[in-house]
Amino acid sequence: MTSAEDLKRVAKQHPDMPLAPWMLEEAFGYPIDFAQATLDFYRRSGELN
Predict the structure, then answer these.
(1) Per-domain residue ranges for the chain?
(2) pLDDT digit string, tens, across residues 1-49
(3) What CA–CA distances, in Å, run from 32 to 9, 12, 21, 29?
């Protein structure tokens, strides 16, 4: 599983945009639905804003 730190690193590559599924698709090759589920999981857990 991708760590919250990995997600924050990806977000820093796009400082003017909110973290989005397409960024995980680009960075890790995730299918878009899995990328969305990953972001949802970390947002629900409170590890991502």
Answers:
(1) 4-45
(2) 799 999 999 999 999 999 999 999 999 999 999 999 999 999 999 998 7
(3) 18, 20, 6, 9
